[in-house]
Design a protein that fits this description.
The protein is built from eleven helices and four strands. By secondary structure, it is mainly α.
Length: 350
């Protein structure tokens, strides 16, 4: 039997080691109310019990995290962006008389979309599942529309690269280049819509900025590929594209981290935080180097292009891991929901 006594000014005589612990389900993880423990009401009133640290029933996550692997899905996100943006830059290079840069971007787009599709099929388990996704076209489903976009873009990008490399049927090659460029922006951004159309907090709460992050990241990667593969005399527009892509990617990512509130926390912590910081450093260094040194030296251009490619890769892996981290921790699901409910109740009372 307890020997503690409850008085007006608090509990006296309680044994500290018998204090009940609430919400200690997930190991090594704190709740959202640590800073408020011990005081309530703002007038010095002492709390009778500590603030509850929310986890979930039985310590189980609220959401069932996706079973995706980073080597499949994060690579799929990066390679799709590289391919789509590369086709757009390739068409521009061809129209402005930059044949080496155009050919390099067409070939890299073909290689990237092949790798992206292979990663997607590997994640699905067998090729027949990808084919089954083409049996219907559902405009409200990002996955369905993305499958059809890939099915249209892949042959166009392949024909553009092969016909350019062989020199056969130049008019057909120009048409394929135009078709790939027309579908390129959709290939670049539909994956952002795809991941944001889930219940994963870090992705869903960033739905407004994520397409801009993907667009900027893809533009930086494609510009980096051109800088690494084409002669300096043909890469002037690519340096401008690297600058625009880097600025867009960084601005959109920072806006996401500021606006999404608690759901943006995983982008700054753990493995996701390390990838995101590496992406910022590499993209920033690659962009600055491309603008300042990329037009003077072939070696400097190649080095800056490699940094841009690496920065885009890190950003995509960071976004992937941020989503997985937020799905595993129930506070990113429940705390924002409670805040929204409280806000609606407060609004209704006023």
């Amino acid at each position: 039997m307890s020997e503690s006594e409850v008085r007006k000014d608090g509990v006296h005589g309680a044994r500290p080691d018998r204090e009940a612990l609430v919400g200690k389900g997930l190991p090594g993880r704190g709740g959202g109310g640590r800073g408020r423990r011990g005081r309530r009401g703002g007038r010095g009133e002492k709390a009778m019990v500590p603030e509850a640290e929310f986890t979930s029933y039985y310590g189980r996550p609220v959401l069932k995290a996706p079973t995706w692997k980073a080597s499949d899905v994060a690579a799929y996100l990066f390679l799709g962006g590289l391919a789509g943006a590369g086709s757009v830059l390739a068409a521009g290079a061809q129209l402005t008389g930059r044949p080496v840069a155009a050919r390099a971007l067409k070939i890299s787009s073909l290689a990237a979309i092949t790798g992206s599709t292979a990663a997607l099929i590997h994640d699905l388990g067998r090729p027949a599942r990808f084919a089954n996704m083409l049996r219907v076209m559902k405009p409200t489903s990002p996955m369905s529309m993305g499958s059809w976009i890939l099915a249209g873009y892949g042959p166009a990008a392949g024909a553009a690269a092969v016909l350019d490399a062989t020199g056969l049927f130049p008019r057909l090659g120009a048409a394929a280049t135009g078709a790939a460029a027309a579908l390129g922006p959709a290939v670049t951004t539909y994956t952002a819509v795809l991941i944001c159309d889930t219940a994963v907090p870090a992705w869903h709460e960033g739905r407004r900025e994520m397409p801009f992050v993907f667009t900027g990241s893809a533009m930086s990667a494609a510009a980096g590929m051109a800088l690494a593969a084409a002669p300096v005399r043909e890469t002037g527009p690519m340096r401008t594209a690297a600058l625009l892509g880097g600025v867009l990617e960084l601005a959109a990512a920072k806006t996401l981290e500021h606006r999404a509130g608690l759901a943006a926390e995983p982008y700054k912590q753990g493995k996701a935080g390390r990838f995101m910081r590496a992406g910022e450093i590499l993209s920033g260094a690659g962009t600055a180097g491309a603008v300042l040194l990329g037009g003077r030296s072939r070696a400097a251009a190649a080095l800056c292009g490699t940094a841009l490619l690496a920065g885009s890769t890190c950003t995509r892996f960071g976004i992937f891991h941020a989503g997985m981290q937020s799905a595993r921790d129930p506070k990113y699901t429940v705390v924002p929901q409670r805040e929204r409910v409280n806000a609606r109740e407060a609004e209704a009372r006023t």
